[in-house]
Amino acid sequence: GAVVSQHPSWVICKSGTSVKIECRSLDFQATTMFWYRQFPKQSLMLMATSNEGSKATYEQGVEKDKFLINHASLTLSTLTVTSAHPEDSSFYICSATGTSGKLYNEQFFGPGTRLTVL
Amino acid sequence: GNSVTQMEGPVTLSEEAFLTINCTYTATGYPSLFWYVQYPGEGLQLLLKATKADDKGSNKGFEATYRKETTSFHLEKGSVQVSDSAVYFCALINNWNSGNTPLVFGKGTRLSVIA
């Protein structure tokens, strides 16, 4: 149990286009989802915290108009990279926590999405 | 603030060698501590965790003990295998009872095990 999926697993796009990344909790309801960004050979940087039905909370330095996050249901959060540029190329990882018990006290990670902007 | 410092890699070991990856933390309050592993091309997987002082987390031959007096959570394994080659992240959550608290990660340590 507690499986998180991401789609797509990798995407290549042209500069100036927008890309949507989905994060789904497959077998539990996720009240909170987190979006991280990982640069090559570096740690995970928290981008934003997303709670179902409310606006995402962005970390300092993360452009909310650039990285649109929507958490419309208890099983789905989306990250849209708008007007992508090569510097947005990165590995994006989501994680989710559930509503109670073990699911509430642990984060479950998706496999990540590798974005390459040409 | 909350932070995690772990030894910089890469670490290269021969198969069956002993592994230690150091991790120390700074936190207000009483954090829970985690080790995550990231295999090549994959996302993060929880390796082990400890939620209070003196707890020992263990999994797949890996162990780490929550040492409050030294604010440390060092990862150890007695005999590494080639399949242990991965990046290991030490992390903390400073509010165990809050499901919407993000993890604070160390920078990761890349381990390469050679046959």
Provide the fold topology.
The complex is a heterodimer of chains A (118) and B (115).
Chain A: E1 4-7, E2 10-13, E3 19-25, E4 32-38, E5 44-51, E6 57-58, E7 67-73, E8 76-81, E9 90-97, H1 101-104, E10 108-109, E11 113-117
Parallel strand pairs in A: 2-11
Antiparallel strand pairs in A: 1-3, 3-8, 4-5, 4-9, 5-6, 7-8, 9-10, 9-11
Chain B: E1 3-6, E2 11-14, E3 19-21, E4 23-26, E5 32-38, E6 44-50, E7 56-59, E8 62-65, E9 75-77, E10 86-93, E11 104-105, E12 109-114
Parallel strand pairs in B: 2-12
Antiparallel strand pairs in B: 1-4, 3-9, 5-6, 5-10, 7-8, 8-9, 10-11, 10-12
Report on the architecture of this protein.
The complex is a heterodimer of chains A (118) and B (115). Helices cover 3% and strands 51% of the residues of chain A. Chain A is globular and about 45 Å long. In chain A, β4 (32-38) and β5 form a beta hairpin. With 118 residues, chain A is mainly beta. In chain A, strands 2, 4, 5, 6, 9, 10 and 11 form a 7-stranded mixed β-sheet that branches. Chain A contains 1 helix and 11 strands. Chain A starts with a strand and ends with a strand. With 115 residues, chain B is an all-beta fold. Chain B has strands spanning 3-6, 11-14, 19-21, 23-26, 32-38, 44-50, 56-59, 62-65, 75-77, 86-93, 104-105, 109-114. In chain B, β7 and β8 (62-65) form a beta hairpin. Chain B is globular and about 45 Å long. Chain B starts with a strand and ends with a strand.
